[in-house]
Specification:
Mean pLDDT: 84
Number of helices: 10
Order of helices and strands: EEHHHHEEHHHEHEEEHEH
Strand content: 15-25%
Number of strands: 9
Radius of gyration: 28 Å
Oligomer: single chain
Shape: elongated
Structural class: alpha+beta
Length: 272
């Protein structure tokens, strides 16, 4: 299946790892390759255990212990939450600043008939006619919940006319354009619904769900929450990067055909 610096990885090992970790063939092979890289790094770093190795099982236990020591002493400190730099957290804050610094936000359920600025006159007129007919139907409903709008969007007569539904936190001009922002800002109670509004991007009908007051959360205030949120994905990515660094200088050969064949054989629909 693969060769890591002269250490072969066989199909039966991959199958065993698939069962242990409850993962697919490709993921199991990646885990075994990672283990071999860590085992080699552990041996080179002098994390070898003591005592005589009398069997292949003993050898694997020793290698597992060596890898665990390497991870605990040299890798875990580098993937701890405290290792996330302020610059990385600041970057996340800046990219999502609207989440922390914003005016009043209204959560709205929105029916949409999108057009786009370049739509020609005839199809735009059809889209407008659809939107107007949709508004008549909305006004006839006695159920003023967001769920009623969503259910309307799933009816075949509206699906085939490209009516869509979504729920958003709407500000002055995002995520929907300003024409929607102004209309939504006038809503204040559950069930309240805008008139049909539109611009070059399309036509919209929005219904009030909830709201959030204006906020101005500084980076210092947001940083602990952001560090907590980003930790697990950051940790996985950092561990992968450290593992890739270990592969430098080591030849790794993987047989894609063998992986594909094993994946097909182990898939739920494969013949016994």
């Amino acid at each position: 299946m693969a060769d890591v610096a002269g250490q072969p990885i066989f199909a039966d090992e991959v199958v065993a790892q698939m069962r242990r970790a409850q993962v697919d063939a490709r993921s199991a092979l990646e885990q075994l390759v990672t283990f071999e890289l860590l085992a080699r790094a552990a041996a080179e770093a002098g994390h070898a255990g003591s005592g005589a190795v009398t069997s292949s099982d003993d050898r694997e236990r020793v290698r597992s212990t060596e890898v665990q020591r390497l991870v605990e002493r040299e890798i875990e400190p580098r993937i701890a939450k405290s290792a996330i730099s302020d610059a990385e957290v600041r970057n996340l804050y800046d990219r999502g600043k609207a989440r922390f610094v914003h005016g009043r936000l209204v959560q709205a359920a929105v029916l949409c008939v999108f057009t786009g600025a370049r739509l020609k006159a005839e199809p735009r007129a059809r889209a407008e006619a659809t939107a107007r007919a949709l508004k008549v139907t909305v006004d006839q409903q006695t159920d003023r919940t967001p769920a009623a709008l969503e259910a309307l969007s799933t009816r075949p007569e509206w699906v085939e006319r490209n009516v869509s539904f979504t729920t958003v936190w709407q500000g002055e001009d995002e995520p929907f354009p300003r024409v929607v922002g102004r209309a939504v800002a006038a809503l204040s109670k559950p069930g309240e619904t805008t008139a049909l509004v539109g611009d070059e991007t399309g036509y919209y009908i929005a219904r009030y769900v909830a709201e959030r007051p204006p906020e101005n959360v500084s980076f210092a205030e947001a940083a602990p929450r952001l560090r907590e949120e980003m930790f697990e994905p950051w940790r996985r990515q950092r561990f992968l990067q450290l593992t890739m660094d270990l592969s430098n200088g080591h030849d790794i050969e993987v047989s894609p055909e063998a992986v594909k064949l094993l994946a097909e054989q182990s898939s739920p629909g494969a013949a016994p």
